[in-house]
Design a protein that fits this description.
This is RNA-binding protein KhpA. Belongs to the KhpA RNA-binding protein family. Its main location: cytoplasm. A three-stranded mixed sheet has the order 1-2-3. It contains three helices and three strands; from the N terminus they run αββααβ. The chain is 42% helix and 26% strand. A hairpin with a 3-residue loop joins strand 1 and strand 2. By secondary structure, it is of the alpha+beta class.
């Protein structure tokens, strides 16, 4: 799932080299941390958080098939 988040984020930002994704696995959950350059933060979050919500929806749909809960944190 981290690869999907990285692919989506790199497609959105101006500086794709600065995109970093790390995953932490638990028994029933996965925490995905998405790190982007500060100037690209708005492009990943979007107006009123719409893009971030869409990314979370896509990843949550994939995680549902695996019976996992996913949390995506966007940090700069």
């Amino acid at each position: 799932m981290g690869e999907i988040v990285a692919y989506i984020a790199k497609s959105l930002v101006d500086n794709p080299e600065a995109v970093e994704v790390s995953e932490t696995f638990g028994q029933q959950s996965i925490i995905i941390e998405l790190k982007v350059a500060p100037e690209d933060m708005g492009k990943v979050i979007g107006k009123q958080g719409r893009i971030a919500k869409a990314i979370r929806t896509v990843v949550r749909a994939i995680a549902t098939k695996e019976n996992k809960k996913v949390i995506i944190e966007i940090i700069d």
